[in-house]
């Protein structure tokens, strides 16, 4: 192959568009080999800084996910000079052609002239402008996404379209002026004056606000401006005209003069409610009075106390709540009639002495609606417990009134005690242990089983998030026995689990519930479509077992059945809501949904939304709403208030117990975790310092997104170097004794494992690198004649199951496992030592792996050894992980925290201390 051949790359794209308008893109090269998603992203977005290295588009192991606007960006400018794109099939090629066609029109200056509205739908005269129906659909999706991204509503487009045709999309054009054109709203000067002033002001580079002198108030813009700004007169006139065109609160025709007009209270209200959101969405500056920006409706206070109307049945979830309302304005008590009158008054801005008060009519109207709903008996104890009543009257923290809330909510003592009892999952109705259960449940497991039955009977999904090893499986099996002993249950329950634990579920069901009829839906000969429906009808299985991969492939088959219950084991598998797997599983139908997971959140709050969208669909609303309400204020601003709100909302649906909970009385053996510190060899140190210097030089020349990409790649390379230089240099393995000389860490791991085996004990060794696992295996075999299996993601299920059984039976002393493939779902209590060859940046993942040995059934002291190379990123990040562990316990953790380090923190991370 010539050099020129390597510079002309052909990407054959497969394009699939979901119902939500999201594109799933995969690619192969001219030889039919699959292209990695991150590599495909770098070619698609080579001219787009934000998307470089594929950090902006979402990806998984095979697919790049793009919304319409992102896909149009690919063809907006120059494509990669050494790459070309074509469709794999005729349909793919047609989609590519339509995208190119749409991108051409999308970026034309007169694009909005071609858009027409037909019954609220955006349409284009396809024949007139020469585009296909598919291109027209793509443009419609792009407009919808752009409107949504601006925080506007699609139904506002008819009012905006005339302005868009005249001025284009606000913000698309780049101003060269050193000044900004803004609107300024000023309150009335005196008590008797009720007129507000809306005017155009010029904001200088230093933030000073300029308006024409009184004598030039009626002069044309060019004459009124100071000499230094006269050259910008035409651009200022155009910008003011553009901003005025979006005003709906008042009619304004400033012409060639600076805008200066009076406004009434109702007009100001309309300006704030309707015009201001448009200006803010489009980036137009608006200057408001400081007191108005701070929203001083805090002068209005509402307090209410909830109780139940019938004290004969205070413990009933269906009891109707009654409310006692109390109001005060500026510290003065007012009655309900006075409050209702305030809602109907036109004045919203009241001046008392030297202070202005704003009584927000929207908020007052909302409170009045809440009162009417409450007085009509619309809310029950159940609604209160599961946060199904409006957020305004949800009690976040009983004891914290420091925020001086506008609406203070409290509960009658007896009601409070009952709600806390149900919320804490204690004292729930006894469901009765099923006769067919062949196990003795621990007390906390009985509580978990009763809770699952309680949640089913009250039509609420459930997330059982006990620590690994506390017996989530047997609690779920007890629940299934209860459900399938009921005469009204006439459909099977579905359990979806990772392939690695499918055999474990088969054996546990057979062991604990031999009376259940279990069918495994897995393998090439499995029933599909009508054959599956016939199997369910004739064989009438109680439980159907399947895997995530199979459920995704057979989503059409499985979606035809309404299951008695659907359970996801290791539910974090659906955490990425954009993947086909997550979407397919969340669309399945069941009378009750249960999620089993030891880590309800591994990295981001978006994972929590995906799990809750499965167990109790719609509870958190759309993902966009959840992002605005919780993800942004928590992950970006670290808002304690929003954390408390989120905990209050998830608490009723989430049952989590840990091994350290003294109330469980587990009587587990103790566990000791300790770091095993190892120095680098001279060879490793030289390579480490050289690579660090090269990386620092590159980091200084890169943008933010490029910098993040390099940091992530650099960290992985350094971790391999800390393990062994041959992994870093990608060298073939030499004899074992030579390999041990080049890495103290490898030498310590191999010798420690051999010592454990010679003492008649067993150990697990976890690594995230296949090469490291193979190297440890080679050294133990050559030097100690110990044959060590290595469980990785490529190992077939049957072989995995056999190895787990053999290890538990003591047939071999050392078991090497890939962190991803062996870190969850396996019961390996025969081991009393756990060796972590390399550190994972997420402590929750590492703890999951440790819990393969430290779980119920363990009768020995468990010793956990974490190998850390001294002076390197491993030691520095180990210290950071102590801080990150506290965040993980609080259900808050950022997935890419390492790429967000400051320059000082990064410089310290990249320093090498010999």
TrEMBL record:
Enzyme kind, highest EC tier: hydrolase
GO molecular function, one term: hydrolase activity
Domain of life: Bacteria
Domain annotation Helicase ATP-binding: ranges: 453-618
Span of domain Helicase C-terminal: 748-910
EC number: 3.6.4.-
Keywords noted in UniProt: ATP-binding, Helicase, Hydrolase, Nucleotide-binding
InterPro entries named in the record: DUF3670, Helicase_ATP-bd, Helicase_C-like, P-loop_NTPase, SNF2-like_sf, SNF2/RAD54-like_C, SNF2_N
Pfam family, one: SNF2-rel_dom
Keyword Nucleotide-binding: yes
The name this protein goes by in its record: DEAD/DEAH box helicase
Naturally occurring in which organism (per UniProt): Sporosarcina koreensis
